[in-house]
Specification:
alpha/beta, Rossmann fold, 2 domains, six-stranded parallel β-sheet, 13 strands
């Protein structure tokens, strides 16, 4: 009887213990509304692992209109002592990395985590940072190759690099090497803020490039509507690193499913909250890439996409 009473008391005590509510910082470049599909994807992934907002998890959002504001917001999340910070790309990760060496950091669409030194290696990250990568250095070379196939006359291309994106340094070398093999001249166009974009397009038009490749970054994603407008204004065909840019009116994109990568990042968050160390969780690489083409934009620009390229497309927007 005494044993049964003791067991009952123990079970009651366990039942009365409050559920641990984990705080997850979510750092965004641009507004949460502009990243609505990815926010939804992370929430869905967390729900799949049994997390319910307000019950056992709380998402703490911090958003910056420009990358220059990210360090201040990252420091704010650190001061709040959140349990983990979700920083989707290299731009956000760099800001958080400078703010903390102890709070776990998970990324979903990092372009080149090993190349920029955010992890020691993909197999053994070795620090407080891990997640999923799209390996931008390989991706941009393929993007340029597809662009050349879609625009066979192209001999000069503008390459827009975001100065605040750490991964764009190694990506620029990859683009240059690919361009040399394809016999294409590169006009490097560095940009930092949305205010730089109109001038960048004006310069590319003056330099008579046959098209442009905007290396994927938070800037290219958050300004996708403006970029589509500028492409039409200056009549320049563009290759982008997210399908969101094409859905907004850009000509084409070649990229992994970034929404799916964001949903899968919830698995890392779950493992870390349950005690795993980021240092021991290998970085996963995107395995599926999609070619999306906007035929309406092509017609507006007076471009005929070769049938061989259209047949390869995973989606054609009419």
């Amino acid at each position: 009887m005494f044993l049964a009473l003791a067991l009952l008391t123990t079970e009651e005590a366990r039942a009365q213990q409050p559920t641990k509510v984990h705080q997850i910082g979510y750092l965004i470049t641009g507004s949460p509304a502009e990243s609505a599909n990815r926010v939804k994807a992370l929430r869905t992934g967390l729900q799949d692992h049994g997390y319910v907002e307000g019950k056992n998890i709380i998402l703490v959002f911090r958003s910056a209109e420009t990358a220059e504001r990210l360090p201040v917001l990252a420091a704010d999340l650190v001061r709040l002592k959140v349990d983990l910070i979700f920083a989707t790309s290299s731009t956000e990760v760099e800001a958080v990395r400078q703010a903390t060496k102890t709070i776990p950091i998970v990324f979903a669409t990092h372009a080149d985590p090993e190349g920029v030194g955010h992890v020691a290696s993909l197999a053994r990250p070795g620090g407080n940072i891990t997640g999923l990568s799209m390996l931008l250095t390989e991706l941009v070379a393929k993007e340029l190759e597809i662009m050349k196939q879609a625009l066979p006359h192209m001999t000069r291309v503008g390459v827009l690099l975001t100065l605040t994106a750490p991964s764009h340094r190694p990506a620029s070398h990859a683009v240059a090497a690919a361009a040399q093999q394809l016999g294409v001249q590169v006009l490097t166009v560095p940009v930092r803020t949305p205010e730089d974009l109109d001038g960048a397009f004006a310069m590319m038009a003056r330099e008579r490039v046959h098209g442009f490749l905007f290396v994927a970054s938070p800037l290219s994603r958050s300004q996708r509507t403006l970029l589509a407008e500028l492409s039409l204004k200056y009549r320049l065909a563009g290759m982008f690193g997210t399908r969101e840019n094409v859905e907004a009116g850009g000509l084409m994109s070649y990229a992994p499913d970034l929404v799916d990568l964001t949903r899968r990042a919830a698995t890392y968050i779950d493992k870390i909250l349950k005690g795993a160390k980021p240092a021991d969780l290998p970085v996963e690489q995107a395995s599926k890439y999609e070619l999306v083409i906007n035929l309406k934009t092509a017609k507006t620009l007076g471009i005929t996409i070769p049938p061989s390229v259209l047949l390869r497309a995973d989606q054609v927007i009419e």
